Amino acid sequence: MKFYDREIETQTLRKIEETSRQYAQMTVITGRRRIGKTTLIKHAYGADDMIYFFVARKSETLLCAELADTIRDRLGEEIGEFTSMAKLFSAIMQIAKRRHFTLVFDEFQNFKYVNEAFFSEMQNVWDSNKQEARINLIICGSLYSMMTKIFDDRKEPLYGRATSRMRLREFPLRTLREIMNDNYPDYTPDDLLAMYMITGGVAKYVEQLVQAGAFTKDKILDSVLSFGSYFIEEGKELLSDEFGKDYGNYFSILSAIASGFNERGEIKSYTGIEAGGYLDKLENTYDLLYRYRPYLAALGSRNVKYGIKDNFLNFWFRFIYKYRSAVEIGNLNYVREKVGADYDTFSGWILERYFRQFYRETGLYNIVTNYWEKDGRNEIDLIAVNEADREIIIGEIKRNKSRIDLHKLEAKSETICRKQKGWKVGYVGLSLDDMES
């Protein structure tokens, strides 16, 4: 698959590289696994004078030997033999005083398993040498909680050392449409929705489907739920390291939310788990959940729901994890039938998410959310607000346009209009047919 999007990120990395020719730079790049961090770096810098090093969980001696060999191969520098990563990093910084180069540490958080003291040792080496070194140090990590702790916790030695920070996110909607146009210009809105539902714009997932030639709704679902599919074990592989031994409870809570039980009481009833502490960590430590209230609700309102941020994980927990007994015996046809039976309902909810993302990406609104009143009355799928201009867009979203009733939508909006008296209010009905607009 060709390289898509990331123009701003590429330009930023190249500017950082230019700065590093005079002043040492430490850039920290984070983002979920499969988002395309390594591909971006290789695209931005190419192979010239770039040392790419994947930090594997192996002994420090073996890791030192591997990195020293890489230095010799890439820079032609005889660097000696080391059993201490800190001493090897010090030698690398000495080379950077004589010549400029880019060094990439990928999966940087794995140093914790190699030598937990390395972060403080690295800090001492960096602080002692950065004034004279001309190094472009790029640090990548996929475990959000651990990378955040390493660089954002004031108690950690590398806190405040990064000269630049970059959070890589999913492809925007326009890029997904571009990919579909490039590869299958006859795609339907339902095809695009299925691509969005499974990938959410995560580069690796898009690449998997492109390589499989899966561009229609049915081919996408068949590819995901086929024997040997890349996607079957993906949720477990993504999150087991994050959650550790507690992963069972976290998985149960995420499965409940993906199945539509998104209030705290509902989650407890569904799972039997007192979920408060887990929900807090899923939201604030692991960055997997978002908490939302209806538009105009007070900040301290207990009218709170939870959602899974990641589209693929929503699908994985709703269908693959939920029916894992069938998955484990290889009965993927059973899971495929369950997806088919629930597809209109589940994809309708994904369509709501698509249009809320669409309105966010316009850049015209500072609030994009939804609305409901007590006991779930007067639910509204889309609220897009421009507070500066005192404008509100109120939308109903359905797969089938014939099911949209704007008169009922206006009636459901009475409370909002009363509270925002004098604001300009627009009503929209959005369906599959509007996904290209």
Describe this structure in words.
- The chain has 437 residues and is of the alpha/beta class.
- It has four domains: 7-167, 3-Layer(aba) Sandwich (Rossmann fold); 173-224, no CATH class; 234-329, Arc Repressor Mutant, subunit A (Orthogonal Bundle), CATH 1.10.10; 360-434, Trna Endonuclease, Chain: A, domain 1.
- 49% of the residues lie in helices and 14% in strands.
- The chain has 20 helices and eleven strands.
- It has a five-stranded parallel sheet, sandwiched between helices. The protein has a four-stranded mixed sheet with strand order 8-9-10-11, sandwiched between helices.
- It is globular, with a radius of gyration of 24 Å.
- The two termini are 26 Å apart.
- The mean pLDDT is 94.
- How much strand? 5-15%
For the biggest sheet, the summary is: 5 strands, parallel
Please work out how many helical segments DSSP would assign. 20
Helix content: 40-55%
Number of domains: 4
Report strand order across the widest sheet: 2-3-4-1-5
What's the β-strand tally? 11
Distance from N terminus to C terminus (CA atoms, Å) equals 26 Å
Shape designation: globular
What CATH architecture of the largest domain do you see?
3-Layer(aba) Sandwich
Low-pLDDT sequence parts = none
- What is the C-level CATH assignment of the largest domain? Alpha Beta
- The overall pLDDT average reads 94
- What structural class results from the helix and strand content? alpha/beta
